Amino acid sequence: MKNNIGVIGLSVMGKNLAFNFADNGYKVSIFNRTIAVVDTVKREYAGENIYPTYSLKEFVGSLEKPRRVFIMVKSGQPVDSMIQQLLDYVEEGDIIIDGGNSYFKDTTRRTKELSERGINFIGAGISGGEEGARFGPAIMPGGKKEAYDYVSEMFERISAKAYGEPCCRYISENGAGHYVKMVHNGIEYADMQLISEAYWILKNLGGMDNKEMQEVFKAWNKSELESYLIEITSNILGEKDGDDYLLDKILDKASQKGTGKWTNLEAINLGVDISVITSALNARFMSNLKDERKIGEKLFGESLGIYNGQFKSIDTSTIDRELLVRLVKNSLYISKIVAYAQGFKLLLSAQKEYGWKLNFSEIAKIFRGGCIIRAKFLNDISDAFLKDGDIDNLIFTDIFSEEIRERMDDFRDLMSRVVALGIPANAMNSALGYIYSYSNGNSSANLIQAQRDYFGAHTFERIDKEGVYHNEWNNEN
Ligand code: NBP
Hints:
Helices cover 54% and strands 10% of the residues. It is α/β, with parallel strands linked by helices.
């Protein structure tokens, strides 16, 4: 009897996905470029459904038709190389799935190239890291719907479940699945940055210690902010290293693997404002300039009352902590709404640009389990898109416009305090600026248009009459 699916690439993700398929009753062939890994992985699995193979020919030959080949190798050239080698063995109608973090344009190209040979290709964004792969990831599959139908049952079975539903839904054609995963990662950057800004404000403006902040985060995790990232933050705040807190000993330089960069470059390409996500990426860049920040502190810190990284000008004993916690909570929640709204806005533009048909309500549902950004309020996002499917922006929906209006005074109050005191909270400030920009039908862009016409005769439209105009500007004014 042949096996149901084959997994190539047995590093962290591939190995755990293979085990997950096996746990769910599927017979899984496994293969890896470095052959020695195959037996090591086989030995790691206690059950029976894992079948080692030692050549691609043996691997492909071991699969039932149409064959399902799941590639989980390093993204980029290794994926192309593996597909190229597989072409010697796979046949028309077989399905190749790339579950890595591939760039969506590569996925679109691969889909086209393989479809010309009669091979089905599915680009599946997979989220949840090692734990997710092993016990239930969120899966965002893109490609031909008919091809997805061959794997849908298996994918849904191995995926995370949230509120009884699988965190796996067909996304749309070609690179759409990897695109949604890319936007997910951008939102993840924003979510993490916003939480770290909330922590920084509570610590420096509120003078709260880690234990006190842990209690705050615990309480928030029972509110509309309930989410995986809030939960782990509360655990992190309580983690001890000897007599001290481990968090206080961790160097403040944030790393990245570059997935947030793609989201930002794509937003620039499509002309979409994702300022909160961009601020989060910038904050990671800035965090790495530790030595330069120390130089800056010597030059500018004194005027803000900052000495040795401490805000000496802030008298935390006079702060109403209960009020502060409320202000930070409401600011964090609005900022979070804006970050997700910006991510979905990018998806909205992408759907027009690339001809996809995206179901935003269903995408929000996928994110509810398995993913790093899993959060209770994704239920509201899903409902909001279900109710207002054609809305231009998530912040315009009844649910979220109301949530924002209710909290806006607190958000403005907090941001005015942190700006005055010199506490950097650039992602939150970007969220506030985004709402401000949306809060006024008028803007200063009339002056931009005048300047462009002045130096480049780029023309402008008028508000008092139709048409396109150029003015002979008077240099002597
Ligand atoms: P890695 O991204 O570290 O890739 C290692 C695997 O790729 C090994 O099996 C390796 O084989 C294979 N490989 C390489 Br490298 N070059 C190859 C080539 N030219 N031909 C064939 N195989 C090649 O593994 P990972 O961390 O498991 O991630 C797999 C994919 O999943 C990546 O795209 C990653 O971005 C994505 N992802 C990872 C996570 C996570 O938390 N790690 C989460 C979500 C998505 P070898 O053993 O012979 O070197």
